[in-house]
Structure formats: C-alpha cells, structure tokens
Design a protein that fits this description.
single chain; two-stranded antiparallel sheet; signal; glycoprotein
C-alpha cells in the first residue's frame, strides 16, 4: 500500500509541476514560433527584393546570381538557428561568388570563355583586390550586430524550454516520496480522508522535495534579464528587419563600386589570371534599381508591428515570472492540496487546530538531481560590438 501511495504522490507532483509550468512554457514556445515566423517573413522578403535587384538592374547576370543569393540567405538562416558558422563567412563567400559574374557580365561583358580555372582565379583575386570596396565589410558589420541578437534570443528561448522540461521530470528521492505520503495519505489510515495538510507543514515538505529546483532562482533571474536585454537590442540598433531588408542596397552599392573601378580591376585581373577570350563589341547594362512594391512594403510593416507587439507582451510576462523557481513550493501548496477553509488540518502526526499547527519537516535530505543541477548555468556569447 505504501509503494502504491508513493507512486501516486510522484505522479501527482509531476502533474502539479506540469500544470504550473504550462502557462510559462506556452508563452516561451508561442514567442519562439512567432519570432521564427516573423524572421522567415523578413528573410523571404529580403531575398525576393535582392533577386528583383538583379532581374531589374543587372539582368545579364540575374540567372547566374540566383544560386549565390539563395546560398547567402540560407547561411543567414542557419546562423540564426545556431549553426557553427559566422556572418562574415557567409557574406564574404557570397561576394567571392559574385565577383566572377560582375567581372564577366558587367565590367567585361564581352568575355566568352569563363572556364572553371578562370572563375576560381577571379574568386581568389577578389580577396586580394577588394573590388567591392568598403561595402562588403560594412554589410558584414551591420548584419553581425542584428543577427547576433537574433541568434542569441533564439538560443535563449530554446534553453528556457529545456530548463522547464527538465524541472517537470525531476526525480523525487525516496525520502521525499515518503514525506509526501506521510503528508497526504497517512490521515487515510485513521479514516480521515477529507482532512488536508497544514499550510506550514506542506511548505516544509515541498521545499525539501524541491530544494534543487528552487536553487535555479538566481540563474532564472539572470536568464530573464538576458531575455530583456536581447529583446531590447532587437528593437533598437539591432533591428532584424532593417538589417535584412537593407541587404539588397548594400549589394547594389558594392556592384556599382566595382563597375566604377572597372578599368583598374581589369588591369589587375589580367596580370593575375590572364586575358580571357572576348567577342567583338561591348555589351552594356543599365543600373536601374527596382522600386519597392507597395504590397511588399505593407506586408513588411505588418510583420514588423506584429513582432514588436509580441516581443513587448512576452518580455512583460517573463519579467513577472522572475520569482517562479523561488516560489514553486508556495505555488504547489496554494490550492486544493492544503486546508484553507477549515479550522483543522493535518500536521504529520495528528489533526490540529490551524492556529496551533506545528511547522515541522520530517526528513532532511533534499532531492538530488545531478542532471537538473547541470542545467543551472546560463551563459551567452559576447556581442560583436563588445568583442
């Protein structure tokens, strides 16, 4: 019978903790989904705008530029999701792939033989002659700031869900199970099936059972502060929308810079890579930058407003949950578990008057959970601005 009761209290405590965690986890998971959807919307609009730039202003290379553009935005997406890559590598890899196209389709549009060896030579030369000027480096700087904040927030949200899931499945020690049985079911042996534990008695038992969980309090407070910092950064100088939708303009400025310095670039490339075959005549292309479509701009504004509203709602809720782990015992003892409308209660030994309830704890060993304790440290990479 005692083993049956111990299984019951373990099941009941897990269900109680899951019920407490439900709203908190719902907010974190919901904001994670909202953030991801908004990010994907910004990313999709930014990629479409960049493709439109090539199709309208640089048509001779638009088809060939489609793959490098796709790779750039894929790399950005993977970076935010936590992949082992950097914004600098993604951007510079894009410009490495872009230079052979700009050189052969815009600067020297008469080139007919663009072999793999010659293309690779142009890619390597790009790193030495810097044909795109400071625009490529500026693009790295601007994107790094915003994408870093987004990456850290994405990881923080995932960590929050992981911590909550861990506390939900924290194992109860034998001492804790016995104390819970004594608190909840020992009165049944005397036929007192309706009597409930005294509040102070319940608090002592729960605090002992959840000692390692409550130790998360300081780290949880730090975690909330980190979330607040990251959400503020995303809404200020590190605005994700501005960074992503400005990519097309940075690329356009970089290409124009390379064209303006075409003769000097050609002279250097000829020395390093040789002179490729060219057809007679010189094909030129315009530099018409496409206008923003009203529907696209409207979609962007709505997505940005929605993300800002969700961000404010989320961080305000999370700030109210700063004491979640410090008060978890009080939350579990608040409700149907204890007697609040009766003048008597169970103190672990007998039925007593509430005013005379003895506050005692019938075991001393706190719950031990190595896996849970290993989850207590929250750490974050430094911002690119502070590195």
């Amino acid at each position: 019978m005692e083993e049956s009761y111990q299984a019951a209290v373990r099941r009941e405590r897990m269900q109680s903790i899951q019920a407490l965690n439900f709203e908190l986890k719902y907010m974190i998971v919901g904001h994670t989904t909202a953030f991801q959807e908004a990010f994907e919307s910004f990313l999709r609009l930014a990629e479409n705008r960049t493709r439109s730039l090539f199709e309208a202003a640089y048509r001779p290379m638009a088809k060939e530029a489609a793959e490098p553009v796709k790779e750039l935005f894929t790399d950005i997406s993977l970076y935010i999701l936590g992949a082992e890559t950097t914004v600098e590598n993604a951007v510079l890899r894009f410009f490495d792939s872009l230079f052979p196209l700009v050189y052969s389709r815009l600067i020297n549009p008469g080139i007919t033989d663009l072999s793999e060896d010659y293309t690779e030579c142009l890619r390597l030369t790009r790193q030495d002659i810097n044909p795109f000027g400071h625009y490529s480096k500026n693009m790295v700087t601007e994107l790094s700031k915003s994408l870093w904040a987004s990456r850290m927030l994405s990881q923080a949200l995932s960590l929050g869900t992981e911590v909550i899931n861990t506390t939900e499945h924290a194992a109860l020690t034998k001492e804790c199970s016995r104390a819970l049985v004594r608190m909840q079911y020992c009165p049944h042996c005397q036929g007192l099936t309706l009597i409930r534990p005294c509040v102070g008695y319940c608090l002592n038992v729960m605090r002992g059972c959840l000692a390692s969980v409550s130790e998360l309090d300081m780290q949880w407070r730090e975690y909330i502060s980190t979330l607040e910092y990251l959400t503020n950064e995303m809404g200020a100088s590190h605005d994700l929308e501005i960074a992503l939708t400005g990519i097309w303009n940075s690329i356009n400025e970089a290409i124009l810079h390379a064209q303006l310095n075409g003769p000097q670039l050609s002279a250097t490339v000829d020395k390093v890579c040789g002179q490729p075959k060219q057809q007679e005549g010189n094909l030129s292309s315009g530099h018409i930058v496409p206008l923003k479509k009203a529907t696209e701009a409207q979609t962007l504004v709505l997505a940005h407003a929605s993300l800002n509203n969700r961000r404010r709602e989320f961080i305000n809720y999370m700030k109210r949950s700063r004491t979640f782990y410090a008060s978890i015992a009080e939350r579990l003892c608040d409700g149907d578990l204890v007697m609040r409308d009766s003048s008597t209660c169970w103190n672990g030994e007998d039925v007593v008057e509430r005013s005379q309830a003895i506050l005692s704890l019938h075991f001393s060993s706190p719950m031990s959970n190595t896996h849970l304790n290993s989850q207590k440290t929250f750490w974050w990479a430094e911002s690119p601005e502070s590195s």
